[in-house]
Design a protein that fits this description.
CATH architecture of the largest domain: 2-Layer Sandwich
Radius of gyration: 59 Å
Largest sheet: 3 strands, antiparallel
Distance between the termini: 184 Å
Helix content: 55-70%
Number of helices: 7
Number of domains: 4
Strand order of the largest sheet: 3-2-5
Structural class: alpha+beta
Number of strands: 8
CATH topology of the largest domain: Tetrahydropterin Synthase, Chain A
CATH superfamily of the largest domain: Band 7 domain
Shape: rod-shaped
Strand content: 15-25%
Order of helices and strands: HEEEEEEEHHHEHHH
CATH class of the largest domain: Alpha Beta
């Protein structure tokens, strides 16, 4: 009997030790860095466990959730309809994280939604709804130029929703904005025709500038030639005038000298007449020149020249 009691005592101590070890082992919880644990007591929130080794009451307390405080990302693909009934396809990337490790925030994140799947559904639908509401007020041709405005509009609306859930929106990127194939082809044709029209306009402007410059150059050349001709004519006239002045001056001086020598002035005129005939004969180069060489014509010419000489002398 004593042996039986001793055996039972040993077995009891053995199982008691095992129980104590189990209890002691369950009293310590390790939380990874960047993560917090949620302690519940019989299903009710108790406290938040920070990263490292933590103590909890065995059996009474349990770790119901482990929440990551690190950044999280999700890729979205959806479509929206513009005001002119065009389908726009979006591919976006959303980056978010828990707002802060405070107890109230962690409590909000842990118990706001039934599970992670419900939270992700609400998040995705919120982004899609914000984008669709913005796109529905714009025309298809304006969407590509409004990428930044779309992002800013979605961020403004999503920030409030995420903050109420205990999260913070870090970044939202619209990685791709596309259209149906038919619309893409028509847009390509519009761009091509616009480029062709711009090229034609540029070519026309270049041709107009070239023609204008050529006309300006020709006009300047004509002006320069006319000015040169005017100056040349002026110089020729001045030369002829100087020549005539010198001729008249020489004839006057010769007439005075002959008068002083008591000679007939008509001899000078006769000499000029014969010299002129000689010059015509030598430099005519075959051209026919009709001159009246009769004595009457010579006397008439000499009288006119003498009258001119007398007039110049009186002047």
């Amino acid at each position: 009997m004593a042996e039986l009691i001793s055996l039972l005592t040993v077995v009891g101590l053995f199982f008691g030790g095992i129980f104590v070890l189990i209890v002691m082992g369950g009293s310590f919880v390790s939380i990874q860095q960047g993560t917090v644990g949620i302690i519940t007591r019989f299903g009710k929130f108790g406290r938040v466990l920070r990263p490292g080794l933590n103590f909890k009451l065995p059996i009474i307390e349990s770790v119901s959730q482990r929440l990551s405080l690190q950044n999280r990302s999700v890729e979205l693909a959806f479509q929206a309809i513009t005001a002119d009934q065009a389908n726009v396809h979006f591919k976006a990337m959303l980056l978010f994280s828990v707002l802060n490790p405070d107890e109230d925030t962690v409590l909000n994140v842990a118990f706001k939604f039934v599970d992670e799947r419900s939270f992700m559904t609400a998040l995705v639908r919120s982004v899609e709804g914000s984008v669709r509401a913005f796109v529905a007020t714009k025309k298809q041709q304006d969407i590509l130029a409004l990428r930044r405005e779309i992002i800013d509009s979605v961020k403004e609306q999503l920030d409030h929703a995420l903050a109420s859930w205990g999260y913070h929106l870090i970044d939202l990127q619209m990685n791709d904005i596309g259209f149906d194939e038919e619309i893409s082809r028509s847009m390509a044709k519009v761009v091509a025709s616009s480029n062709l029209r711009a090229a034609a306009e540029n070519e026309g402007q270049a041709l107009l500038i070239t023609k204008t410059k050529q006309a300006e150059a020709e006009g300047n050349a004509i002006k320069i030639a006319a000015e040169a001709e005017r100056q040349a004519a002026q110089l020729r006239g001045q030369g002829i005038a100087l020549f005539r002045q010198e001729v008249a001056k020489g004839m006057t001086e010769a007439a005075h000298e002959m008068q002083k020598a008591d000679l007939d002035v008509s001899f000078i005129l006769f000499s000029m007449w014969t010299e002129s005939l000689k010059h015509f004969a030598e430099t005519g180069k075959g051209n026919v020149i009709f001159l009246d060489g009769s004595p009457d014509s010579m006397q008439d010419t000499m009288k006119r020249m003498m009258a001119l000489s007398v007039k110049n002398t009186k002047m």
